[in-house]
Amino acid sequence: xxxxxxxxxxxxxxxxxxxxxxxxxxxxxxxxxxxxxxxxxxxxxxxxxxxxxxxxxxxxxxxxxxxxxxxxxxxxxxxxxxxxxxxxxxxxxxxxxxxxxxxxxxxxxxxxxxxxxxxxxxxxxxxxxxxxxxxxxxxxxxxxxxxxxxxxxxxxxxxxxxxxxxxxxxxxxxxxxxxxxxxxxxxxxxxxxxxxxxxxxxxxxxxxxxxxxxxxxxxxxxxxxxxxxxxxxxxxxxxxxxxxxxxxxxxxxxxxxxxxxxxxxxxxxxxxxxxxxxxxxxxxxxx
Length: 287
Description:
Elements: H1 7-19, H2 22-29, H3 33-47, E1 52-55, E2 58-61, H4 63-88, E3 95-101, H5 103-117, E4 124-130, H6 135-138, E5 144-148, E6 157-164, E7 166-171, E8 186-188, H7 196-204, E9 212-214, H8 217-225, E10 231-234, H9 235-240, E11 244-246, E12 256-262, H10 270-283
Parallel strand pairs: 3-4, 3-5, 8-9
Antiparallel strand pairs: 1-2, 5-12, 6-12, 7-10, 7-11
C-alpha cells in the first residue's frame, strides 16, 4: 500500500526547509536533533525518494521536499485562519493572492494602500510581482494586476480607478530649468519605444537626446530625484515625492488610466475579491 503522508510529516519537511539544519529544525519542532534525523530517514524510505541533500550550506530540499513544504505552509495558513475565526467569531479571509504591477505603481501607490488595510487580514498572504506587461495574468501567473493603460485587454475584467497625467519634473534644488530643451533628460529605454512620454518628447522636443535611459519609470524617477536631470513622470510619483517639483503642466496626449484587473475565473475567490475591493476603495479617485 502506498504511504499516506500526514500532518506530522509535512511539519517535519517544512521545519527542515525553513531551518536548513537539523539543529534549527529540531528547535522549530521542539524535539531533539536525533529525532529529526531519524524521522527524515524514515519518511524518505517510506516515500522512496530523497527529500534533502546535505551540502556546505545545509540541507538542500529536493523538488519533492519543496512541494511538500508549500503544501505544509498552506495547511499552516488554514489552521491560523481557523484559530482567528474562532477567536473573532466570524469568517476569516485566507489564502494567497498573486498581484503584479510596475515598480513605480508598487512604490508610490500600492505599498501605502497595503499598509492601511492588510493588517486587518492576518490570514491573507500576498505575493508581489513587478512587471510591465499583461502576460502574467494571461499565463495565470498572477491573480490581480494594477496597470496603467487606456486599453485593458478584453479577456480581463476590472475597474478603472483613476486618471493619471504626466508632468515634466526635476529635483527641487532651486536651479533654473525653464528651458526644457537645454536640460539633461532622463527617459525610458528602447524597451518602451511607444511610451506616451517618449512620443511627446520626440514631437515637442525633437532635438533632445536623453543623457540617461532606464528600463522602468521607477528608475527614471530615482535618477530624477538624484538631480541627474529632468523627466516626464506620472503625477502620482510627483505627489508622493516631496523632493521633486513640476516644471510643466500635464503633458498633452499623455493621460492614461489606472486599472485594477483580474481574470474572470478569479472573481469567485473570496481572497481575490476581498483584495480587489480593498484596493479599489484605497486607490479610486475622481477626475
